Amino acid sequence: MGTTNVANYKIKLNGSDFSADLFNAIETLTVEDEINLPSMFRIQMNMVDSGNGKWRGIDLKTFKPGDKLSISMGLDKPELMLSGEITSLELLVAEHSLVEIRGYDLLHRLRMGTRNKVFTKKKDSDIASEIAREHGLTPQVDDTKTIYPYVFQNNISNYDFLLKRAAYLDYELYAQDKKLYFVKSRAPKAPELPEFNYKRDYEELNLELRALTKGSEVTVRGWNVKEKKEIEALAKKGDESTKMGGKESGYDITVKSIEKAPVSFWVENLIDVSEGKAAAAAAYNSLLREFITGEGKCYGNPLVRAGKSVKLLGIDERFTGVYYIISTIHNIDKQGYMTKFKVKRTGI
């Protein structure tokens, strides 16, 4: 592998291509995405238009909060990475003056303000759809099945509220363009990316395998008000959504080598055993994904994105296998285009 590569990128501002002057002033372009967080962009530009003897990009006519921006990155053919809006400008006036333009995809709109609201006779997927439409987004949801008599949103943002509901279900919350997704964790899906070989496709990988200190069995308990009895549900070995190609799960290895690490939690107003079982399985699989965590670096690849899985090859047989990408940083500067990524794995 060489030490540099030629980056190709496109930026549209309010539907139009950047002017040649602005495009040529860009020094650094960064796009970051992470599971359950708004994707973010940063553009650093030379703030001095020396040819005309004036400042550039800071008149609040060229850029201002709320302006729509889309970024495509790649090598041969740029891929759309993010559609969002500008939220801030940072100015550095110095010997080398810069303006940094920052913003997020439209998931960030759910962070605006807080709400006090009661949802009655709705599923979580219904609630997510209602909130999406409130922010002008088209809902893309997986049916959550359980209908609740009522759900309280108590003085928190729509984002924090939905994130809490998603964690309970092991769902994911993200936006693409003008669509809001509230869907099952994508970790169990088969890899969408081509296989990655060490040295050919990635140049660094730092992995950490840890004994799992909780979650080998997950018990959920609650009180059924209508029937006036306790409800109990259990998730244990056999409820893994995936071992990601490994022979043993992280719980298998921890229990065999050290000891069990059961956990339990109480759920207010638990509807029935079915809801309890789903909540237990969600917690079980979420905790299992902490077995192997790691981060790596490869030459710029716009297909490497949070929410996708990849099979990493070229290391010891037990560590070779499928990994779930939880975050990425795509950066273009004078050194070229590089991608950093973080991964998780449930088995080995």
Automatic annotation (TrEMBL):
Pfam families: Phage_GPD (PF05954). This is Phage protein D. It comes from Ruminiclostridium cellulolyticum (strain ATCC 35319 / DSM 5812 / JCM 6584 / H10) (Clostridium cellulolyticum).
